[in-house]
Specification:
94 residues; alpha+beta; Arc Repressor Mutant, subunit A; three-stranded antiparallel β-sheet; 3 helices; 38% helix
Length: 94
């Protein structure tokens, strides 16, 4: 299945039934979805916590500013991560 290209104006959001939460047993960030649970590393949590109506460009600039990172390099990594999350049906692209 071909993953759609993610436009700068795309607004990634958590898919229906998906939510971010802190696991009460471990204290780690997780994403809960109808089929299960995934423990998130810090990077994935930072990305998913920004999938709240902001555009792809806004997410890139927010992360680049917070982590003093190169926005162009970050955009490529972010597109790959969001494409994977979309493929796994954890986010929707609007």
């Amino acid at each position: 299945m071909q993953t759609p290209a993610i436009a700068d104006s795309a607004q990634p959001r958590l898919a229906k039934g998906v939510r971010l939460q802190i696991d009460s047993a471990t204290g780690k960030n997780v994403v809960l979805f109808p089929e299960g649970i995934v423990e998130l590393n810090e990077t994935a949590h930072e990305i998913l916590s920004r999938c709240d109506g902001r555009t792809f460009s806004e997410i890139v600039h927010s992360l680049a500013e917070e982590y003093d990172a190169n926005a162009a390099a970050l955009a490529a990594d972010l597109r790959a991560t969001l494409s994977d999350l979309h493929r796994r049906k954890l986010i929707e692209l609007t």
